[in-house]
Amino acid sequence: MNLPNAFVCRVQQELPEQADQLFAAISENAPRVSIRQHGTKKEAEGLPLDTSIPWAERAYWLKERPIFTLDPAYHAGAYYVQESSSMLLDHVISQLPSFKRALDVCAAPGGKSLIIADRLPQDGFLICNELVPKRADILKENVIRWGNSRVSIVSGAAADLAAAGCEFDLILVDAPCSGEGLFRRDPDAIVNWHPDLPAQCARMQSSILEDILPALAPGGHLIYSTCTFGRLENEAIWQLLQANELEPVALDLPSDWGFIDSAEIFNDMPANKAFRAIPGFASGEGFFIAAFKKPASNSQSLHLEINVATIENPLLQLKGSLELFGLANQQYAALPKQWETVLKLSKKLKVIHAAGEMGMMHPQNGFVPAHALALSTDVETTFETHHFDLTQARWYLARKDFSPAVIPTGYFLISWQGHRLGWAFNKRGKFVNCFPVPYKIRMDLPRN
Ligand SMILES: C[S@@+](CC[C@H](N)C(=O)[O-])C[C@H]1O[C@@H](n2cnc3c(N)ncnc32)[C@H](O)[C@@H]1O
Predict the structure, then answer these.
(1) Ligand 1, atom 16: nearest CA belongs to which residue?
(2) pLDDT tens digits, one per residue of 126-137
(3) Which of 16, 45, 236, 339 is most deeply buried (CB count within 10 A of its CB)?
């Protein structure tokens, strides 16, 4: 692998003790494939699980890379394919106090959002933001698949999020960065890299942080992470945050996990306050993470009354503190009662996906369930379920032209081995596949 000269020189200067091992690891070893399983959906069978990843719950390295696209359990959200170092977020969050209002500022494709979603309490919510529209669509697909109805997606700049006047207990800034930690996994990361990129990224990172910090509630926590190696984008940003009176949080990481304390590399960093994953040391790609607390103060938190009407709920059984609300355009969503922030943000920013999306009321066809409802783990439905075998499940996911002999009436759920995949509709005896076209399998299917 041809690493850019300027990158090699800088790493040799900044990480003299780690540089050789890092270069050897990214040049000689293939990246390992890893997944994180869903906590409440039916477990996927047949995955080539290797060892478990100690810093995240239900996380495993795989012995080899299966063709995930052909696995219906993947489409059902039984697991998410995620790089293992970045799952350290799960361990970091587990060391912070519980939170109800969470914001993921730079969220797509969404692996870290799903980690936060899994740690939300019943009455908590997560707003995922993604500035780039195409990436927001991928994020939406992943969030819907995971099926946590407490997650909304919006698209805007950090300044717009803060200008909406909302406050959060936990904010993650997994910042756009120069991507050096992905060199081994993604050849484009090398092609796109240039010597000025780290400085450009550091400027963008500090401006995102400056814009978003007003939205962090007093006493709330900020997590900052990147997938790059340069000090400028990691420890220098850490020092900027500390200089702005954020209190660094001590993190407890067993040394045998292989993450390196920034204090071991830079003598102006305190111990246990920021960690790096460096290939050759930790089993995963490059990553940096640190957490901060915003000091408590007397600043007033904003409060906005919810202003939507509760509607009758004949078809859905909602868990916990969710209530069904009628939104604009005959859309229905199941939302916790105290969601002023979500409504407030949705008035200010482009909404890509409303949390708790359930479906819409069609003037002729009645209630039309949303794809998100089929995959939701928060809502049980009374719709009938039709079970497919593996071949039929793949045809369904690929939207092949086929029709089962006998089908239920109206809308019904399609399931494979207990994994809910989506909806179908009986149109005067004809099977109508409702699996969303943008998410369909586009590769050739095996013959059996
Ligand atoms: C490192 S990626 C996030 C990865 C994601 N957190 C995950 O775990 O899947 C950074 C994201 O920030 C977005 N982004 C780029 N510029 C941004 C900006 N100025 N403000 C906020 N987000 C931005 C990028 O489009 C990208 O999706």
Answers:
(1) 176
(2) 999 999 999 999
(3) 339
